[in-house]
Amino acid sequence: MKPKVAFICVHNSCRSQMAEALSKLFESDVFEAYSAGTELRDTINQDAVRIIKDLYKVDMNKEHKSKLLKDIPSVDIVVKMGCNVVCPFLPAKHIEDWGLEDPTGKSDEEFIKTAKNIEKKVKDLAKRIKNKEIEL
């Protein structure tokens, strides 16, 4: 059975959504991806949507919406995106913090950098899961 991974941050509108989209695109054979936050947003970050569409041809507006922690199933791995405020807590067998800066309100260049960084980290996470480097 594939492990379930939750990407969490406060608003679940930008970085965690990008991580969920890229996980589903690249690593759906390794783990199931979810994203959630502690506060809902009416829409997910449209700059993130545009950049992910440009770079990866994935339309997050179709399948993604802001979700609360209670809206997702229980998970095996929690990845905190990086919060300067109190990070949400979700119980899991493995928890890590990627410490990513929030690109909201910044240039496309920052969004692209964040997306590429998330892609790299998602692939690394999948590799660690495959190599049993993460105890589940």
Automatic annotation (TrEMBL):
PANTHER family: ARSENATE REDUCTASE (PTHR43428)
Keyword tags: Arsenical resistance
SUPFAM superfamilies (UniProt xref): Phosphotyrosine protein phosphatases I
Pfam families: LMWPc
Name of the protein this chain belongs to: Arsenate reductase ArsC
Organism of derivation: Clostridium neuense
Domain Phosphotyrosine protein phosphatase I: 3-128
